[in-house]
Amino acid sequence: MTSAGDPVADNGELDAVFADTARRTGASIGALYLLTPDEQSLRLDVLCGAPAEFAAPWSKVAVAAPAPVTVAFREEHLVWVGSQEEMARTYPRTSVVLPYPLVLAAAPVTGTRRWGALLLMWPATRPPYMTGRERGHITASCRRLARLLEEAAERGRPPSGDERTRVVPLAPEDRSDSPAMAAADFAERLPGGSCALNLEGQVTYVSSGACDLLDCEAGRLLGTVPWQSLRWLDDPTYEDRYRAAVLSREPVSFTACRPPDHWLEFHLYPDASGISIRIVPSGAQPPPAPASSHSARPATPARAGRLYQLTHLAAGLTEVVGVQDVVALVAEQVMPAFGARGLVLSTAEAGRLRITGYRGYDPHIIERLDGLSVDTDFTPAGRALSSGVPAFFSDPEEMRRLYPETPQVSGKQAWAFLPLIISGRPVGCCILSYDRPRVFPAEERAVMTSLAGLIAQALDRARLYDTKHELAHGLQQAVLPRALPEIAGLRVAARYLPATRGMAIGGDFYDLIRLGDTAAAAVIGDVQGHNVAAAAVMGQVRTGIYAHATVGTSPDQILARTNRLLADLAPDLFTSCLYARLDFACRRVTLASAGHPPPLLRLADGDTRPADVSPGPLLGIDPEAVFPLTEIPLAPGLTLAFYTDGLIEKPGIDLDDAIAGLAHHLAHADERDLDLLIDHLLSKAGMEGQRADDIALLVLHHDAVHHDAG
Length: 710
Fold this sequence. Notes:
Strand content: 25-35%
Number of helices: 21
Largest sheet: 7 strands, mixed
Shape: globular
Mean pLDDT: 82
Distance between the termini: 87 Å
Structural class: alpha+beta
Number of strands: 28
């Protein structure tokens, strides 16, 4: 009997609904991902149809990562991938670790909050489309999973995000074993050999004919995986064929040589319960592989699982941007892959090892280790970095013989010191540590060393990116206004949001300029690009506009003179700009545009529409360009919203429709607090998460305050 809040009871019902969903949809593999407590990652909670080892490369996925399951979670809609070609085209990183013909669907598990996402996979033999009935069933199942998670949370058992992945059976467990002897007799009568594997790869049945062909007794095979009990099958190529059968659910064949020269054909037939294998002598002997010039014993090849983790990490490292992204990726993928409980990632700077990120250590320990000389003998990091040779210590006693103080400082029990070297140049050091003594086999050391090379390349690129980012960010912050001036009769709010991809720096800018006691000017613009050059041009444009505006120049001439300035400087970056002069004495707004989206007008009665502005060309193209003037009344209660195209441009959506949609959101926003109004517009436009472009937004509201023209 289980009590309320018992994790076994909570998990049991959740697992049953999850497995039932996979079975009823005909999926061969199912996975339920849940949001971690820090809300930065999705963790694989439950899996069916495949062993947990297969899911190791993607057992934890950053929410921001470009993968079907994270896109479904972030955007809260079902993601369908109908073929391997579509996977490679749309999700290249995912296709690296799933290089098999299959069909995939990912759906958000959402109730009162976003819990995670459901992933389902089918063999490629199913139709490459989803029916409305299938879609409805998956959606309903996700709602049911969300309710179970909410009920568990109410009982004080919310998902922790730290538990290990549970593997539940996909096929019903009440299968009868009564025909077992008849099936065995049937297999014995067949020519050749027969054997069976479960989904974990373990031999569950082997016929006498198979034992003869494999030259191995049944007792040595049952319960083992073939590539461990048969050394001549210990090759990642053969394990990959087994993986292909499990993941694709399609028959797979390969040929292997049993020493010295017996070639055998293996035919694998998978389903939801395991794999049936027929073994027959090969009809034609493949040509022998070229003999190695070295007579030494070949190194044991790395397991296919390790190779997939290596490939997955390599794909991930190509997408990371900054140093902290590298730290996060290593922590999320390398640490679990090798069972590490601690991580220290340091960079070599000016003869010192500066710690750029860590996991599993007390901050006081990190303070003591930070800034050590690169030739320090306090820890093995200095020697590993100077020699370029990784160092492995299996227990504290082994470490204490060479570095007496290190075990006492860290409290760890085993260590791997991996130097990060690029073309002979030291970049830093990656340290993996363990809470218990641990042996590092030669195979594992080789994989760790390969990983260190990938991490070194990514870390070096990330440091360069961070340097450029800091420069561009500092330049951008220097040219954006620190605060907007207070102007009688005018309430103002502004917001700048950088892009979440690439440099996260752009050329969007805004400004509010006081023009005496009876006038003001609002400016907004967008310089092409997302880099230091864009930020520099932004500063030139803003300075030019400010200089011309403060001497009373008309809006059209301000843009014309700034345009000639940019044409003379020839920055090869074009700029859109909108300038509006608000004359409180004459109660009018005069606008001029250089290819910029029109501002939105919201009148006192709530009527909201885009201003009818005739734009001139972008700044910096034609030095003789003319910029038409537009005048509108400046009535009390008027709200003006200026914005850049990052707020309205979305793939597949017409620009006019997007502007109309923004006007609709402005019409229904509460204008009593302009900062909250901006929050409302950004939320409705879906700009709270990932952004491909930066955004500037400036909102003005004219209150009924009298301005003396004299």
